[in-house]
Specification:
Strands 7-6-5-2-1-8-20-19 form an eight-stranded mixed β-sheet. The chain has a four-stranded parallel β-sheet with strand order 12-11-10-16. With 431 residues, the chain is of the alpha/beta class. Helix 1 runs parallel beside helix 10 and helix 4 packs antiparallel against helix 5. The structure holds flavin-adenine dinucleotide. The site of flavin-adenine dinucleotide has 33 residues, from helix 1, strand 2, helix 2, strand 5 and helix 10.
């Protein structure tokens, strides 16, 4: 029998169930560790699939993975961590329920005690305090967001089909404005192009020429992680697909059916998607540790992912990874790829060595992987080890759908969906 079973298992607390927290929770050796996961979300979101889900390519259940699974001994608590006491090694937590009517006794704060803590709470969307964005814009971070977008698109087309509706109102309803020229905004524009030109033009032939998708970028370029030639390629590809890209756009206000810009004044919309800006979650804002000073403020760690205290020394019992953290002296992108590689690194460190705080093994090193963005009509761009565009990029994006998931069940379901979509179109008429 494993000798660890007779000893007090080391308690590891994980904050967050995103790419980082989920991978870590399911990779740690439970014979060796007692693992407690605290997060308001009971599932982990496969973010690269969200745009496809919003456009009805996949069922929304394919884009999430539950934290609780059979035959696993992980303890999960549906709550938000509000404070970390690094001295006492204690988390203060608040139950996270929005719909359940809770009695006073349900909402009590409680504590979780740990030997090691892993901080992975991701980021939240920045609306730059532009009035109206919070109320009226749609976001794309969770499965519920993708479902809301899908329903909204369906409502737009139905409303535009009501008899005697004036044509300018139809055009307004079918105008999609995407704010943000990053991979999320551009990918969404690409997928909407396909949706409108393939399936919806058959379901709503009377509205075929009235849809419009535009991307408002805050700077003079799109897709900043890519080289200039690929940025230009992507812009041309979008233009070919009738996606209008507006550079250096300054949005001053948002109302229920229009945006106001410095350049063009008022522009009416049927759907406004806010796909830009990240800022720290409240927990990270409040933590008294070293944080990066340029770009978004992220928790700084050493190259073994241990949190750096205010004075720059290492806290050997605290680790941080994912979008909320960066390695001191580096500037790794906030991507699922980095989050997963860091999680795999920590899993190896924790599972292999008796005490991960004595610096065995090697420091974390990021392995560059390809970054794919789809621009619609079987076109796209790929950066990373090799750079390319066009049909090959579309193939990479397609196979990426499968690569992103570690679950066989979901891989099979995605493949079945492809075949069904190919045979009979996507399943968008149902809610
Ligand atoms: C639409 C979209 C498409 C993307 N496509 C790609 C792609 O193709 N390739 C790629 O590499 N990356 C992609 N990304 C980026 C990728 O999703 C992020 O880098 C990744 O989610 C970061 O993982 P994380 O674990 O740090 O945080 P997240 O996934 O954001 O998860 C954070 C978790 O922490 C929880 N949490 C927050 N605050 C607290 C608290 N106080 N207490 C407890 N829990 C808390 C949250 O509820 C959540 O469960 C995409 C992102 C989006 C939005």
């Amino acid at each position: 029998m494993d000798h660890h079973c007779h000893k007090h298992k080391e308690r590891i607390a994980i904050i967050g169930t995103g790419w980082a927290g989920y991978a870590l929770a399911h990779g740690l050796d439970l014979n060796k560790f007692s693992v407690t996961v605290v997060s308001p979300e009971t599932t982990s979101t496969m973010t690269p699939l969200l745009a496809s889900v919003a456009c009805g390519l996949f069922d929304f259940r394919l884009a999430q993975e539950p934290i609780r699974r059979k035959r696993r001994g992980i303890k999960y608590i549906k709550a938000c961590v509000t404070h970390i006491d690094f001295e006492e090694k204690t988390l203060s937590c608040h139950p996270a329920f929005s719909h359940l009517a809770m009695s006073e006794s349900d909402v009590h704060e409680f504590q979780v005690y740990y030997d090691k803590v892993v901080i992975a709470p991701g980021t939240r969307i920045d609306t730059f305090n532009i009035p109206g964005v919070e109320e009226y814009a749609y976001f794309l971070k969770k499965v519920a967001d993708a479902q809301a977008i899908r329903n909204r698109i369906s409502e737009m087309f139905e409303m535009a089909s009501i008899p005697n509706i004036p044509e300018d109102r139809q055009r307004q309803l079918l105008n999609v404005i995407i704010v943000g020229g990053g991979p999320t905004g551009i990918g969404m524009a690409g997928e909407l192009t396909d949706l409108f030109q393939d399936d919806y033009s058959e379901l709503y032939p009377h509205l075929r020429d009235k849809t419009r998708v535009s991307v408002h970028a805050f700077s003079h370029k799109i897709l900043s992680p890519y080289d200039t030639n690929l940025q230009e390629y992507a812009t041309q590809s979008l233009n070919r697909n009738n996606v209008w890209v507006k550079f250096d756009s300054h949005i001053t206000r948002v109302t229920a059916n229009a945006i106001e810009t410095q350049e063009e004044g008022r522009i009416g919309y049927g759907l406004l998607l806010w796909a830009t800006g990240e800022r720290p979650v409240p927990l990270v804002d409040s933590l008294d540790v070293s944080k990066s000073t340029h770009g978004m403020r992220r928790i700084l760690t050493d190259s073994r992912l241990r949190v750096l205290k205010k004075d720059g020394t290492v806290d050997v019992n605290s680790y941080a990874l994912g979008d909320a953290a960066d390695i001191d002296g580096e500037s790794l992108p906030p991507t699922a790829e980095v989050a997963l590689q860091k999680a795999d690194y920590l899993i190896h460190q924790f599972n292999t060595f008796p005490t991960p705080d004595i610096e065995p093994g090697v420091p974390f090193r990021y392995k560059q992987r390809q970054l794919v963005t789809y621009t619609g009509r079987k076109d796209g761009v790929v950066a990373g080890k090799k750079e390319y565009s066009g049909y090959g990029a579309w193939l990479s994006w397609k196979s990426g759908n499968l690569m992103w998931t570690r679950s066989w069940r979901r891989r099979i379901m995605i493949s079945v969906t492809w075949v069904l979509n190919w045979l009979g179109g996507r399943d968008i008429a149902r809610n």
